[in-house]
Design brief:
Helix content: over 70%
Order of helices and strands: HHHHHH
Number of strands: 0
Number of helices: 6
Strand content: under 5%
Amino acid sequence: MTVLASRAQLRASFFRWALFFVPVVLLLGFLSGAASGSGAENPWFAALEKPALYPPPVTFPVVWSVLYALMGLAAALVASAWGARGRGGALVMFLIQLALNLAWSPVFFGLHEMRWALYLLGVIDVAVLLTLVLFWRVRWQAGVLLLPYLAWVCFATALNYQLLELNPHANGTDYSGAVQRIEL
């Protein structure tokens, strides 16, 4: 049996991929949120009635930063698995689910389309599950790193559903947050 790479070379390959994937995924997540005006300070979102399971607003940037870092590390594990069966397909599925993920904030916060965002989350749930399974087949550790992400997008789906149920009038509407003062 011939060895193609030493353990040190394999570790170096993982670290190079991690230095690529982690910052890129974090940056793309940040840009998607910033471009769509996501967050509690969004006037349209601030005006929505929140369900009981809605966590404190500070939770979202912290959780998403951790999840994006875990996603980047999982992708690096798979990308560094040179010659592994299913590696290419797993990485393609990762990019598909990432693109879907990045589209959610503009649909929800930018377009105020809670119903379409909910449909998109259903597709994201399936895409993340498929990515997790494909990653698991290449490197089980990569699949484990995606488990919190799967749990969070399932929670986000439930939260999106409850927001839509509580605020059907706000679906697809514009709300500028502008106030008109009339002095008497």
